[in-house]
Amino acid sequence: MDTITIRDLEVFFCVGVPDDERAKPQRLLVSIEIEHDFTSAAASDDLGETIDYYAMSQRVLHFGEGTHWKLIETLAVDLAQMLIDEFRVRRVTVEVKKFIIPQAHFVSVRVARQK
Fold first, then answer.
1. Which of 4, 20, 31, 49 could form a disulfide with 40 if both were Cys (CB 3.0 to 4.6 A apart)?
2. Domain count of the fold of the chain
3. Residue 70 among the catalytic residues
4. Which of 24, 70, 98, 115 is catalytic?
5. What does the pLDDT profile of the chain (115 residues) look like in tens digits?
6. Secondary structure of the chain in the HEC alphabet?
């Protein structure tokens, strides 16, 4: 299967267990891997035959507006489900990186879901 990857898309979402951590958006990096067969798109050179990764990235950038999550695990699962529902995705992997532990580069969760 072929893959589309969006790596480390910078988003600002309200996420965290303590109320004060969720009070304002914080910087997260989201990576997405979509499995999709490129055969038709390559043959026709038609965007309609593949996944519009620009439109997908714009949707992800605005996904957190007006929403709060306690866990990045929940955020990752919600993102994966939205991508399946809205972008004809059969299989997706979502990784969310959070920069909460000063001694670590980041903490991340990675989920894979399929239709």
1. 49
2. 1
3. no
4. 98
5. 899 999 999 999 999 999 999 999 999 999 999 998 889 988 999 998 899 999 999 999 999 999 999 999 999 999 999 999 999 889 999 999 999 999 999 999 999 999 8
6. CEEEEEEEEEEEEEECCCHHHHCCCEEEEEEEEEEECCHHHHHHCCHHHCCCHHHHHHHHHHCCCCCEECCHHHHHHHHHHHHHHHCCCCEEEEEEEECCCCCCCCEEEEEEEEC
